[in-house]
Amino acid sequence: MLYHVFMDVTLPRDLPADETARILAREKAYSQDLQRSGKWRHIWRIAGQYANYSVFDVQDHDELHRILSGLPLFDFMDIRVTPLLRHPSAIREDDR
Ligand SMILES: O=C(O)C[C@H]1C=CC(=O)O1
């Protein structure tokens, strides 16, 4: 199943710089592993915001929830999920 996910990050101002750097490094590795696996299909920075639009291709709601709640930045994110399905007018064959 495909899901559109909006992630908006707010880091606490008093988070020590070294801890912030550690969390961001873990977040990057976690995200890139999932992108390599094909589960995290797209990630786009939203211009002017510490936020992204992403598309996930996962088995079901449970898998998406596991992935999102495992994000190292999860505690600092506002996350909005929209399930997607194929549009009847879509012409691309490689999208479900
Ligand atoms: O930067 C972000 O948008 C938040 C998060 C999502 C992937 C990643 O590496 O960081």
TrEMBL record:
<comment type="similarity">
    <text>Belongs to the muconolactone Delta-isomerase family.</text>
</comment>
<dbReference type="Pfam" id="PF02426">
    <property type="entry name" value="MIase"/>
</dbReference>
<keyword id="KW-0058">Aromatic hydrocarbons catabolism</keyword>
<protein>
    <recommendedName>
        <fullName>Muconolactone Delta-isomerase</fullName>
        <ecNumber>5.3.3.4</ecNumber>
    </recommendedName>
</protein>
<dbReference type="GO" id="GO:0016159">
    <property type="term" value="F:muconolactone delta-isomerase activity"/>
</dbReference>
<comment type="subunit">
    <text>Homodecamer.</text>
</comment>
<comment type="pathway">
    <text>Aromatic compound metabolism; beta-ketoadipate pathway; 5-oxo-4,5-dihydro-2-furylacetate from catechol: step 3/3.</text>
</comment>
<dbReference type="InterPro" id="IPR011008">
    <property type="entry name" value="Dimeric_a/b-barrel"/>
</dbReference>
<keyword id="KW-0413">Isomerase</keyword>
<feature type="domain" description="Muconolactone isomerase">
    <location>
        <begin position="1"/>
        <end position="89"/>
    </location>
</feature>
<dbReference type="InterPro" id="IPR026029">
    <property type="entry name" value="MLI_dom"/>
</dbReference>
<dbReference type="InterPro" id="IPR003464">
    <property type="entry name" value="Muconolactone_d_Isoase"/>
</dbReference>
